[in-house]
Design a protein that fits this description.
Elements: H1 2-8, H2 10-31, E1 32-34, E2 41-50, H3 56-76, E3 79-88, H4 92-101, E4 106-109, H5 111-116, E5 121-132, H6 139-144, E6 150-155, E7 157-164, H7 168-178, H8 185-189, E8 193-195, H9 201-215, E9 225-227, H10 231-240, E10 245-249, H11 252-255, H12 257-262, H13 270-273, E11 275-284, E12 287-291, H14 299-313, H15 316-322, E13 329-332, H16 339-351
Parallel strand pairs: 2-3, 2-4, 8-9, 8-10
Antiparallel strand pairs: 1-2, 4-12, 5-6, 5-12, 5-13, 7-10, 7-11
């Protein structure tokens, strides 16, 4: 729908670009001033938006040191930042919309969210993450070789998993997979599923493609789905038996291993009580993207931001902060890197 509307309004858009070029330059100039003593460019406030893939309070606490790290790095690159404001969106889409509107300057967003909102934001960096000890598109391999461990190999992609929990129905489908039996659509449609919102790569898009490739179906064809606001909620529901299966990123059980027994009420290990029943294709890693509408964004500041985040990802303190999203560092990105995500989005939209 977004693309359809944009085509219908192409003439208006072109005219607005002609009118807006000068005003954008003026906005940047007024939002950035130069400190006479240091020579650095002064920016009063930098707003960073995170998507709620973990508990919001957990993200805010873990990323608090990022404020000082980023301020110090940018100071060395010629920018004095008065305040770094970190927010967690109510949804993945909320962060994308904030970037498009210019109310968020920088967004740490998945590739799927980026391509939905790439008319309003530019991608700067792709996250790298630790590889995993299991790299297979066969669900049984993940169960035969668990627990999943991190490796030192750095990768720019990850997989999504369909994970069955301790409910009777969840254990039944897991048993079929571990016996080498093929699951039927009826097996899957009889389950209660936890899914994320429609722009989440691991929580919606790629599992939908998995269903399409294997069964000619889509998440919207499932009879019983529950939308979870974050993966912590999804695992809590899986542990309690409210849902039989969830869809998530491949190392999510590592992130929720302790909570499984300490907060979610289980006595046995998450590795004993959960099994993989489906594995998606690889998903290109999360992005650091910036708003096209932000009054502080110009090419020079985008270059400084990119270098600052790369530098932060190369320090122990920085790695500790960005580990909240399983990031281990950053490399420069291009819009074309996410063409596979665009194809995925197009397929998802065509099925709705």
């Amino acid at each position: 729908m977004k693309k359809f509307i944009s085509k219908m309004l192409v003439g208006v858009t072109a005219m607005s670009l002609l009118v807006g070029c000068g005003s954008d330059a003026t906005k940047t100039e007024t939002a950035q001033t130069t400190d006479a003593e240091s020579g650095n460019v002064k920016i009063d406030k930098l707003t960073i938006g995170f998507v709620p893939s973990r508990e919001p309070d957990e993200i805010v606490t873990a990323t608090e040191p990022l404020k000082e790290l980023l301020t110090n790095e940018l100071a060395g690159l010629g920018y004095d930042i008065g305040e770094v404001d970190i927010t967690v969106g109510t949804s993945f889409e909320a962060v994308g919309e904030g970037l498009s509107a210019g109310t968020i300057d920088v967004g740490l967003i998945p590739g799927g969210t980026y391509v939905l909102y790439d008319d309003g934001c530019d991608v700067l960096l792709t996250a790298t993450r630790d590889g995993l000890s299991i790299e297979s598109d066969n669900a049984k391999d993940w169960n035969d070789n668990k627990p999943t461990e991190a490796t030192t190999e750095q990768v720019t992609y990850y997989r999504a998993l369909i994970i069955a929990g301790p409910s009777e129905a969840g254990q039944a489908v897991a048993e079929k997979v571990n016996n080498g039996e093929e699951l039927t659509w009826e097996d899957l449609d009889g389950l209660n599923w936890s899914v994320m919102n429609s722009s989440s790569p691991a929580g919606y898009i790629y599992p939908s493609l998995w269903l399409q490739d294997n069964y000619g179906k889509h998440i919207t064809d499932l009879s019983h789905t529950a939308l979870s606001d974050n993966y912590g909620t999804a695992f809590s529901r899986l542990a309690s038996g409210q849902v039989d299966v969830l869809v998530t990123y491949a190392d999510a059980r590592r992130d929720n291993e302790d909570k499984w027994t300490s907060e979610y009420g289980r006595s046995a290990s998450i590795w004993d009580e959960t099994n993989v029943i489906g594995v998606t294709d690889g998903i290109y890693n999360d992005t650091i993207s910036v708003s096209k509408s932000s009054p502080i964004m110009d090419d020079a500041f985008k270059a400084a931001l990119s270098q600052a985040f790369i530098n932060i990802g190369n320090t122990d303190a920085g790695k500790e902060v960005i580990a909240i999203y399983s990031h281990n560092g950053y490399v420069e990105a291009n819009s074309e890197d996410y063409d596979s995500e665009r194809k995925a989005q197009e397929l998802i939209m065509s099925l709705q």
